[in-house]
Amino acid sequence: MKPLKVALLGCGVVGSQVVRLLHEQADDLAARVGAPLELAGVAVRRLGRKRDADVDPALLTTDAEALVTRDDVDIVVEVIGGIEPARSLILAAMARGKSVVTANKALLAEDGATIHAAAKAGGADLYFEASVAGAIPLIRPMRESLNGDRVRRVLGIVNGTTNYILDKMDSTGASFTDALEEAQALGYAEADPTADVEGFDAAAKAAILAGLAYHSRVTAADVHREGITEVTATDVASAKAMGYVIKLLAICARSDDGRSVGVRVHPAMIPRTHPLAGVREAYNAVFVEAESAGELMFYGKGAGGAPTASAVLGDIVAVARNRLSGARGPEESTYAGLPVHPMGETVTRYHVSLDVADKPGVLARVADMFAKHDVSIQTVRQEGHGDDAQLVLVTHRATDAALSGTIESLRELDIVRAVASVMRVEGDETP
Questions:
Q1: Which parts of the sequence belong to the ACT domain (predicted)?
Q2: What are the residues whose beta carbons fall under 8 Å from the beta carbon of 368, sequence distance 6 or more?
Q3: φ, ψ at 402 (rounded to 5°)
Q4: What is the pLDDT of residue 52?
Q5: Do the beta carbons of residue 362 and residue 384 sit within 8 Å?
Q6: For 138-301, CATH number?
Q7: pLDDT < 70 positions in the chain
Q8: How far apart are the first and last CA of the chain?
Q9: Residue 16 annotated as part of some ligand binding site
């Protein structure tokens, strides 16, 4: 049969692996699709740069727009990342009816509405499995397999860099700085790790997952975001002593009344018995709670050239099959239109450590302050004596706004020397 031609935008870590797999698995891919897949061209910024894949120099071009608008191109694969020129190139391709496979989480989280609308207008497919959690099959189950169910909550470790850092802090007692330097030396963290350690990467992925789970439009700007730079070795050791581990979590949850959703990224304590607690090093995992399906766990490599390319190739096969059959994949589903409620309305539990004066009546005054803000205390204990005295409290579920008000009031008490740490608690067990 006539080959389906693929235009590739980008030939870096992921793009070079896409080229390799297209060549090495050409016969199998043709059998699965029903027609050969042929690389029409590869758009790069610099022609002379050394590449990981063996790419025919005749396929390389610096004119990406000319490549994606060629009449003979059927599928455009975008792995250059960022907002521009990726957005303009994708829109140009879709305006000409070309289906797009992308790994661009930042673009989908910032302007997914425009991209989805262009796909619909152009009668093109938009597939983006590789945009969240690398090789882990997650987008398609959320987009299709669970489409007949009601998702209650999505709880995920979706950034390998931060998971590696927190895992090393937990297993070796290292400081954040030392664990970050080790991650950089091993290639798990960039020279500038801001996007990872400050939670921007995870927030983009959380926005995509929330949109799929709750059939509502969610952008990265809607996501409450906190990074891990303030997590100390003392925080990690304290959690460990109570049978907990600290993870950077992306959390998407429907409100109790079902009228809104909360989408947040922040460090949290989870019990070591929870499935996510055992996710080590740079691996990713997403835990989904659905009304009928129950609890589901998706686990695997969340980044890297070959794992991400595997997800890209899966999308290429799906898109190619659709083009041959004259079908189209699922469109964006936003019928529910649920708003994202502010972080202040989010309800969760909290672990609070206070440096306090070691004298009678301290606990009563602290407890009274919690009560004034309608925050119920679940457990409390005192650690140390004299200048080392600490109160460690775990609350029942309370709103973020109520807890914030409590903390501000505690800072004004003469018996509280410092608020040593405040950490959200996820999971069902009591620390």
A1: 351-424
A2: none
A3: -65, -40
A4: 67
A5: no
A6: 3.30.360.10
A7: 52, 428-431
A8: 62
A9: yes
Top CATH class of 4-134+305-325 equals: alpha beta
* Annotated binding-site residue? 190: yes
In tens, the pLDDT along 360-388 reads 899 999 999 999 999 999 999 888 888 88
| Residue 223 annotated as binding site | no
Q: Is 372 a catalytic residue?
A: no
* Domain range summary for the chain, segments of one domain joined by +: 4-134+305-325, 138-301, 343-425
Annotated binding residue 422:
no
Catalytic residue among 5, 168, 205, 247: 205
Non-local (6+) Cβ contacts of 171 within 8 A are: none
Global pTM reads 0.94
- Its CATH architecture, for the domain 343-425, is 2-Layer Sandwich (3.30)
Is there a binding annotation on residue 252?
no
